């Protein structure tokens, strides 16, 4: 099964993707994480995209499509959760073509609906474990022991360089200009499932589970499923 998580920065895509990995054995394909890994590795591509990401703009389609293509070629086992990809119509068309070549398709597109008003708080309070990737929040989801990840015990807790109000404003603008048109695109294909992203994490997860148990695209033998 292949699922897209669509929503603005801070909507909860990463949080929900991690739960799906745990619960359904799916693979999380986050282009944001892939790009941050490229930056941390010091590769030429990582250096090129660092400045683009810091100011909240979108990285070029060819770079992110290349990253996804590489990951899809190495296999996704029980299915993939696309977290933060696609973000443009060109990326959506490329994903459909890549999956078709593998005899697969998108089964559902979950649109996490949130109000912009909550996003500043979500993004400015977020910190992430540098070791296992678990996502925390100062107020709504703090670690039990300050400075120590509950999930893996690491003390490598980090804040993202682009998690500030200026960059968030730019990321939101990019979202509405280039990514929000995908809502209509997937609605027209009968794949869109809106979910209330303002509900508590567990309730959002339950709503997503219900969608995946009866995906809008139907269950099809062409698609890998867990
Ligand atoms: P990326 O890393 O994808 O960031 P994003 O889309 O801006 O999304 P976020 O990771 O900020 O938020 P999220 O929805 O995952 O929320 P989270 O679960 O963490 O992209 C970063 C940059 O990389 C882009 O700006 C761009 O430059 C580049 N990029 C990436 N993909 C690209 C692409 N395809 N094309 C071009 N460029 C690309 O939750 C946020 C916080 O809220 C957390 O603290 C969490 O604990 C809390 N929270 C989550 N859910 C709830 C809830 N239900 N209730 C209360 N709190 C909650």
Helices and strands in order:
Layout: E1 2-6, H1 13-24, E2 27-30, H2 31-41, H3 44-54, H4 61-73, E3 80-83, H5 89-101, E4 108-113, H6 116-124, E5 126-129, E6 135-137, E7 157-158, H7 165-179, H8 181-188, E8 192-196, H9 201-213
Parallel strand pairs: 1-3, 1-4, 2-3, 4-8
Antiparallel strand pairs: 5-6, 5-7
Helix pairs in contact: 1-9, 2-3, 4-5
The protein binds BIS(adenosine)-5'-pentaphosphate (AP5).
The site of BIS(adenosine)-5'-pentaphosphate has 37 residues, from helix 1, helix 2, helix 3, helix 6 and strand 6.
Give your account of this protein's structure:
This protein has 226 residues and is of the alpha/beta class. Helices cover 46% and strands 15% of the residues. The chain contains nine helices and eight strands. It has helices at residues 13-24, 31-41, 44-54, 61-73, 89-101, 116-124, 165-179, 181-188, 201-213; strands spanning 2-6, 27-30, 80-83, 108-113, 126-129, 135-137, 157-158, 192-196. The strands form two sheets. Strands 2-3-1-4-8 form a five-stranded parallel beta sheet. Strands 6-5-7 form a three-stranded antiparallel beta sheet. α1 crosses α9, α2 crosses α3 and α4 packs parallel to α5 (89-101). The longest helix has 15 residues, at 165-179. It is globular. The N and C termini lie close together (7 Å). Residues 221-226 have low confidence and may be disordered. Bound molecules: BIS(adenosine)-5'-pentaphosphate. BIS(adenosine)-5'-pentaphosphate is lined by residues 7, 9-15, 31-32, 35, 52-53, 56-59, 64, 84-85, 87, 91, 122-123, 125-126, 135-137, 140-141, 162, 171, 197, 200-201, 204. BIS(adenosine)-5'-pentaphosphate binds at residues 7, 9-15, 31-32, 35, 52-53, 56-59, 64, 84-85, 87, 91, 122-123, 125-126, 135-137, 140-141, 162, 171, 197, 200-201, 204.
